[in-house]
Design a protein that fits this description.
Helix content is 85%, strand content 0%. The protein is mainly α. Belongs to the chromate ion transporter (CHR) (TC 2.A.51) family.
């Protein structure tokens, strides 16, 4: 029953989230932490960190790791299929009609409305991850340094992750 429930939770997230993996994170958090209490915020934050470091889309990685944490390998498979299948099916359907309707003003207006909502979802995910992980002066230092290196120096994110990991080892 838990496997089916995981599939349905992630299928709902996959079906009703727009904007990619980071936009899905607030929905995953609400369903897994707030509504079902399968994980706490710290566990979810750890899963997000691992999901960002592993190859692949963050929403799929998160679903896979959350499913595994909750119900093992079968939970992992159920959550991953749940988050992927709705998008896959919708893309196949939309692709067959998109060329016909792309130039319509209603479609362009809908995309114009969706873009700011996606930005809001991304901001909510960033806020949630920040309040969970920036907990003391050392973590604030690593956050500010990483942010500065990424956005001011335009350094490769992989290098920033390595620097942050080394700082974490040294400081903690």
């Amino acid at each position: 029953m838990l496997i089916i429930r995981l599939f349905l939770i992630f299928a709902k997230i996959g079906a009703f989230s727009i904007g990619g993996g980071y936009a899905m994170l607030p929905f995953i958090q609400r369903e897994i932490i707030d509504n079902n209490h399968y994980l706490n915020l710290k566990e979810f934050s750890d899963i997000l960190a691992i999901s960002q470091m592993t190859p692949g889309p963050i929403a799929i990685n998160s679903a896979t790791f959350v499913g595994y944490k909750i119900a093992g390998v079968l939970g992992s498979v159920a959550a991953t299929l749940g988050i992927v299948l709705p998008s896959f099916i919708m893309i196949i359907i939309i692709a067959s009609f998109f060329v016909k309707f792309y130039d319509k003003k209603e479609v362009k207006a809908a995309f114009s409305g969706i873009r700011p909502a996606v930005l809001g979802l991304l901001a909510a995910a960033a806020y949630s991850v920040t309040i969970t992980n920036v907990i003391d002066l050392k973590s604030i230092f690593i956050f500010i340094l990483s942010f500065g290196i990424l956005f001011i120096k335009k350094m490769d994110p992989i290098i920033v992750l390595i620097i942050s990991a080394v700082l974490g080892i040294i400081l903690y």
